[in-house]
């Protein structure tokens, strides 16, 4: 990987997913935050709809790719996922977002 490679970054925070395309050098090419409804449970728990998260992330990735801010083809994008419980890096062809 080189500093010019592009990373798809997804932060699954409690306020909703944050999606961005960032060069490994640290340059932010495009980013967006989409709020998601939180359902508060008795006793202080909280839950959110994972299906809604997926739709928000999928649509944000599509908007980012369509924005013209991301010069690489999706197959040339390194992917990163940061979640509450885990994080990881992978270099793989970006899948075509589903319906």
Helix fraction by DSSP (H/I, runs of at least 4): 10-25%
Low-confidence stretches: 85-97
Inertia-based shape: elongated
Query: What structural category characterises the helix and strand content?
Result: alpha+beta
Order of helices and strands: EEEEEHEE
| Main sheet strand line-up | 3-2-1-6-7
* Cα distance spanning the termini: 30 Å
- What can be said about the biggest beta sheet? 5 strands, mixed
User: What is the count of helical runs?
Assistant: 1
Total count of domains: 1
At the first level of CATH, what is the class? Alpha Beta
- Please report the total strand number as a whole number: 7
Strand content: 35-45%
At CATH's second level, what is the architecture?
2-Layer Sandwich
Overall pLDDT score: 77
CATH topology label: Nucleotidyltransferase, domain 5
Give me the Rg, rounded: 14 Å
Task: Provide an overview of this structure.
This protein has 99 residues and is an alpha+beta fold. The protein has a single domain (6-90), classed as Nucleotidyltransferase, domain 5, CATH 3.30.420. It has one helix and seven strands. The chain has one helix at residues 50-66, and strands at 6-13, 16-23, 28-33, 39-40, 46-47, 77-82, 87-90. It has a five-stranded mixed β-sheet, covered by helices on one side. Strands 4-5 form a two-stranded antiparallel sheet. A hairpin with a 4-residue loop joins strand 2 and strand 3. The longest helix is centred in the middle third of the chain and has 17 residues, at 50-66. The protein is elongated. The model is unreliable at 85-97 (pLDDT under 50).
